[in-house]
Design goal:
Mean pLDDT: 91
Shape: globular
Order of helices and strands: EEEHEEHEHHHHEHEHEEHHHHEE
Number of strands: 12
Structural class: alpha/beta
Largest sheet: 8 strands, mixed
Strand order of the largest sheet: 6-7-8-3-9-10-12-11
Distance between the termini: 28 Å
Low-confidence stretches: 262-266
């Protein structure tokens, strides 16, 4: 992995205004860094802001404030024209392969579209690149002239991955890339993404609501709740020694293949639903659902929002008033 961040976000915020008085705070001061060759997992419930963060990092949506850097260059101050060279290096694989591919485009046109947009190679070279990519993702190059509706969900997602790799990016954001697929296909796609990383040295931001999936592919994991990162660290650390009560709840609710010990109580489900991002609670955003706050009633939890700060001697950051540092 490289010495400095390949992609970095600093204090990134995103507000939506669906009405004159209502403000939806989708991102609230997100700090994030991904090193060259690293896989950073991002996990959280639906509505936590994960996909919004992905779109803001790529400037598919404009952040309200904050900055995004790629390889040391600030992206947030650039025009769309100035961003064009960076589009080659930053790609995304969306959640639903049935929606991410244009039904009117053949496989050759869809996978070759980034090459055409960036004017990479001759027509013949583009076709050869498309054929090579299809082989790389486990598909037969004879499918060039077929259309998306002729394929299964797993095959479509392989086509979408081939398209994301076409222009040889350095970082790919995988936004819930397996959640719309059958369980039997999910492992195949995850293994494919890891194999491609080994072959090409790609960096990934891998987004999922499933902590088990993220843990299987990531060097580090960031846990997101109500538009903020609340904990970040190595996957094994978060699974075995997660410090934020939300991380503990996510880890304990994930199904385990290990048999339960005799007399062991099943994990308690996380109570309630996440608050609305248009009306976040004061203090720690998790405190209305937090079992630690329910037991201890720490007044700081309802008065002051905790900062994401490092634990001594560990590659581990957490935003919680109850954690001893």
């Amino acid at each position: 992995m490289g010495r400095g961040p390949l992609l970095e976000a600093r204090a990134l915020t995103k507000d939506y205004r669906p009405g004159r008085k209502r403000v939806v705070k989708a991102l609230r001061g997100v700090d994030l860094a991904i090193a060259e060759g690293e896989v950073l997992g991002l996990v959280g419930e639906s509505g936590s802001g994960k996909s919004t963060l992905a779109r803001c990092l790529l400037r598919l949506e404009e952040p309200t404030s904050g900055t995004v850097f790629f390889d040391g260059e600030e992206l947030t101050g650039k025009t769309q024209r100035q961003l064009r060279p960076y589009r080659r290096q930053l790609q995304i694989v969306f959640q639903d392969p049935f929606l991410s591919l244009d039904p009117r485009m053949t496989v050759e046109a869809a996978v070759g579209e980034p090459l055409a947009i960036h004017r990479l190679g001759s027509r013949r070279q583009r076709r050869e690149r498309v054929e090579s990519l299809l082989t790389q993702v486990g598909l037969d190059a004879t499918i060039l002239h077929r259309f998306p509706h002729e394929f299964s969900g797993g095959q479509r997602q392989r086509i979408a991955i081939a398209r994301a790799l076409a222009a040889r990016p350095r970082l790919v954001i995988a936004d819930e890339p397996v959640s719309a697929l059958d369980v039997s296909v999910q492992a195949q796609i995850l293994n494919l993404l890891l194999e491609l990383k080994r072959e090409t040295g790609l960096s990934y931001l891998f987004i999922s609501h499933d902590l088990r999936v993220v843990e299987a592919v990531s060097h580090r994991v960031a846990v997101m709740y109500l538009g903020r990162i609340v904990e970040e660290g190595p996957p094994s650390t978060l699974r075995e020694r997660g410090r934020h009560p939300y991380t503990v709840a996510l880890a304990s609710s994930a199904p385990s293949l290990e048999p339960a010990e005799a007399g062991e109580a099943p994990p308690a489900p996380l109570a309630g639903d996440a608050p609305s991002p248009s009306d976040p609670p004061a203090g720690c955003p998790f405190h209305p659902r937090c079992p630690v706050f329910a037991a201890r009633k720490n007044p700081e939890c309802i008065r002051l929002e905790p900062e994401l700060s490092p634990l001594p001697g560990e590659e581990h950051r957490v935003a919680c008033h109850e954690v001893e540092r």
